[in-house]
Every structure is written in structure tokens, then in C-alpha cells.
Design goal:
mainly beta; two-stranded antiparallel sheet; 2 helices; 9 strands
Length: 173
Amino acid sequence: MSFLSDYQPQKQEDASGEFKPIKGAYVCRIESIKHMQGTSERTGNDYDFYSLKVQVIDKVEGETAPNRYLDTIFNNDDKGLGQLCDALFTAGLEVDKNSQELFDESLAELKDKPINIRAWVRPKMKKEGDNWVPKVPEELVQKIKVVDKFEVKGGVIEGADTQEIVSPEALPF
């Protein structure tokens, strides 16, 4: 018998209707933090931002989401870079701010570091006149925020302590 000779391929159905945004408090690992810049193939517009992508490794509170990936972006301007630095500081992570090249290199070294994330959803908005209104039918947008501890009913729960987990080998995956 040869390799996979008895296997009958099955068509895969689109499960996008089953994939829902999640809400809760999660201990995650950093999958990547990258500076992304270029030109959109779809729109032709230039883009320049930092992308933070994390993977859920443990639920503290909320919906179960093992191994789920979450991401957020920070604009490459004073405000966005400040927000990124604030998030990393909140997580207890240090980066080299002496130049953009050293900053980008130090971000790459944060792969697999633990980070606490609060996740929620909100409706996607569109501008009508001077007001922002939810799109109809409602489209949901996944949002995340880096936190140092989780405020939950009944008190505060400490999340991952980046000082306790010092190497990727210590993470539970």
C-alpha cells in the first residue's frame, strides 16, 4: 500500500460564518510585532503601521479560545508609536528606542513572550454626514488591549508575569 492510497479527499466547506470575535481576558504569547509598509494591492493606497499578533494560551475570563490568534495595529506616527510603547511597557517588556532600526530589531526579539490581553467586539462603523453609525447589517470588529492585570467581578486577577516566564521553552505549548 502506498502513502495515502486509500484516502478519499473531502471538499472543505467555508466555515467563516462560524468564526466569531471573542470577548474576555486572556494570557497570550506574542506571535509577532512587525513594521509593515508598502502599497495595498487591493486599493493602491500606501500603508505604514506596526502589527501586533498574539496567540491565546490561556483564558482568564470570557469565551474559550485556545490557540486563537488576535491582532491589532499601531500607526507609524507619534501617537501610534506612543500607544505601542505604552502597551509594551504595560506588559513589562522593554524595547530599544534609540533608532527605528534598533526599535524594529528589539520588537522581533519579543516573539513568544507572554502578554495579557483584554479582547472585546464592537460594531464596524461608517460615516453618515457628520456622524459615525454602525453598519447594517451589523459587522463586528475584534478589538484588543494589552493590560497588566485583569479587573473581573469580585476583584483583580494577575495575569502572566513576564519576569517569571523568561524563555520560550517555559511556555505551555
